[in-house]
Amino acid sequence: MLLAIVFGVVIGLSTGLLGAGGSILAVPALVYGVGQPLSTAVPTALVVVAASAIGGLCSRSRLRLVQWPVALIFGIAGIPGTIGGAALGRSLPQDWLMLGFAALMVVVASRMFRGNDRAGAPDGDLVPKTAAAGAGVGVLTGLFGVGGGFVIVPALTLLLGLTAQQAIANSMVVITINSISGLIAHSGAVAQLDLAVLVAFAGTAMLVSIAAARLAGRLPANTVRRAFAWAVLAIAAGVGISSVIGLAA
């Protein structure tokens, strides 16, 4: 329970401040910290991810930045991918999935070290590009229980020319849509959820995300991003080693 609250703080901070990165810690926290099987950890993580995204979106300033047509296209395009990713995840052994998750964590950390991409000039065919990016993020959400903000934020800045703050706000809408559709895809595991852990984890993440969103303009974003990136790398190493040992056993 204590670990669930601690990781809820970490995920809420990262989502509220950066719009990305925190949800990648939810599944390892639940599997290795709380001791849940992956089949339970993924839907639990999806609730936590949705709660932290909604919390980060609660401020009026963030809501004014949302480009609703963009966010909805991105999010709705991810729904089929989320369902497909969930089905694929159920067919793979847990050690292989966690090994893939460790690789994904390394990718996330590398993106966080580089920081947000600068806004680019929007070009043609934005709807197909946005839909394709949304579908890819949906697969990751269904497969691993992550929000995908580390993909959504740079995609919105590079493809659509949004500023970093606009991309973060839109990312939270997309993360919420993907997480809810992922939870529906994992509905068969809902009865197995530990409600006490879920409430402690998700509630903490949401409250901290609300507070962090209000502090986002006052803290050095690069320093915060790098600190989270190092944490993600350290956990990725542990997850990778544990998965390799499990596969070799």
UniProtKB/TrEMBL annotation:
Cellular compartments annotated: Cell membrane; Membrane
Residue intervals passing through the bilayer: 6-31, 38-57, 69-89, 96-113, 133-160, 167-189, 195-215, 227-248
Main localization category: membrane
InterPro entries, per database record: TM_pro_TauE-like, TSUP/Inactive_protease-like
Highest taxon, organism lineage: Bacteria
Membrane topology designation: Multi-pass membrane protein
Swiss-Prot/TrEMBL keywords: Cell membrane, Membrane, Transmembrane, Transmembrane helix
Record's signal peptide: none
Coiled-coil ranges from the UniProt annotation: none
This protein's GO CC annotations: plasma membrane
Family: Belongs to the 4-toluene sulfonate uptake permease (TSUP) (TC 2.A.102) family.
Protein name per UniProt: Probable membrane transporter protein
The species this protein was found in: Saccharopolyspora antimicrobica
